[in-house]
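Class prep. Protein, please:
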Amino acid sequence: MKEKFYLTTAIPYCSGKPHIGNTYEVILTDAIARYKRQRGYDVFFLTGTDEHGLKIETKAAEQGITPKEFVDGVSDKVKEIWALVGASYDKFIRTTDDYHEKAVAGIFKKLLDQGDIYKGQYEGWYCVPDEAFFTDTQVTDGVCPDCGRPVQRAKEDAYFFRMSKYADKLLKHMEDNPGFVEPEARLKEMINNFLKPGLQDLCVTRSSFTWGVQVPGDEKHVIYVWIDALSNYITAMGYTVDEQGELFKKYWPCDVHVIGKDIVRFHTIYWPILLLALGVPLPKKIYGHGWLNFGTDKMSKSKGNVMYADELAQLFGVDGVRYYTLSAMPYSSDGSITYDSMITAYNSDLANNLGNLVNRTISMNKKYFAKVVPAPGADEGTDGELKAAVAEACKKAYECMDGYKVSDALYEIFTMLRRANKYIDETTPWTLAKTEEGKARLATVMYNLLETIRIGAVLLTPFIPETAGKILAQLGTDVTSLEFGSLESGKETGEAEVLFKRIDEKEFYEQLAAMKGEPAPTENEKKETDNKMEEVKDTAEVVEEAVKEYEPLAETCAFDDFVKIDMRVAKVLECETVPKSKKLLRFKLDLGFETRQVFSGIAKYYTPEEMIGKKVVMVANLAPRMMKINGVEEESNGMIVASGGHSPDAVVKVLFADPDAPVGDRIS
């Protein structure tokens, strides 16, 4: 029997069309779901829409329609966009579904009957757009602490949920299960900022509007989002207080709730406490991803910087949108999106690295072997290095996906593809094809390339499924094994087709301007955006380091493993700043027996003049890393050892070697 895997998105509020930041979450969750299916799990993927509340009631009134008519239209639009980006969900729940509303009313009554909910009076500052109350200490200058818009003083009768009753039990669960909330920094924030200071009882009803699930026996009150929307994760599976549906019995507890960082508190405190009160097992994990910002700014209609998935798909294709959003979002910090950054990633990664590799390999095999997959001979030259790179990519990509580090998984796969491109340059198939002796070697080279591409397509299936399918079709195979050598010799490949046509920047902005009915951006405006992107990269890197501050010591390292690290004394021959980067310095290092190019993120702490002529400690046997420097792939071959990199407040200090230490000496 297959192992089950149940995952969910947060259900977006049904007040309008979701932007690309909202859509990223369903793309992310879909990639995880596809990966788990590929690994043989019995997957159930839930998404949907949150459809009650004052904001919806108000918007419907403004349009002269009923709230139900309003949410019907918005929910349909959400479904259209989810379908467009390839979301392979198993169920779409709406909080206006009859079964959900009945289950929510039953949940409320159970909590009321057992004394976990009581009636009282709430007074405080109310934010209409956020539909939230705030205390005097939370409000400054009369504006909402969350959205910055004006709040109004309000007082109303309400029902409250006794949060404090279950706080200690939840705290113990978090402390006993450190992977319950990820990234770890978000778990520590919930514990230190909310649980340990003490929880206040939570207002769980509203009487200022009527669009919602009515409180049983009290028609003046409707059940608020904390119980209504959050309960969707179990009601969609057939849960009621009287019985548990078959889906619930099979798939609960949830394996991972995928949510945005702005709603971590609701999902890691309110939701688990609600489940504890109901006697329902807690979910296994809540993963709170960062925001996908426009440059350095949060997307906002008022700022005019909102981007939508359907519009982006017209410009970059669906897989172009999927690839960029998945690759641009770090595991524990915010990501950034602009048109320029998407063009760069599309041309460099998709059109050049992936698309060109597939196209020229399929074309060469047609030219040299009449489309027949050749039989490989014995390994020679760099064959072993290529196969090792493929095996490493498979291993690391799976490890990353198991830890929800999706952008890192893509990095590993595209590193493998870059190695394949390098393999073409090393083996020069066009030269081998000139002689009979060379053609025997050429058969092995072409087989290795075709097989690397096949494995790459299999690995890419969860991320860019349409493109992965096209690649396998061009290879003429449906074999999905990751074992090198699984591609059957003697079969014919298909015809080479362009997967990603390179984007011309000038034509792109003309098309974008025509779509929006606006003039294309000036060079100065584009330069300003580029500068902002560099700031975003630097900020994201600092945030990643800040998260590492909370990490425990690494696992104990065996002596035999440690001595594999080859640290050497190296002399700085050349050092220069990297244009458009506030962090990177480019080094030319002398190891005595050879020179190396190394990029190091220490430009904030050292000038090139300070480094030239100095002797540093470098890790000399670190695997080379390809880095995108101003749109060009360059290799960093080693690492300069320094301290202070794990805290945003610390000053980075390079570990300099003694001036008399011989260049190339090994450090032990």
In short: Confidence is low (pLDDT under 50) at residues 536-554. The two ends are 51 Å apart (CA to CA).
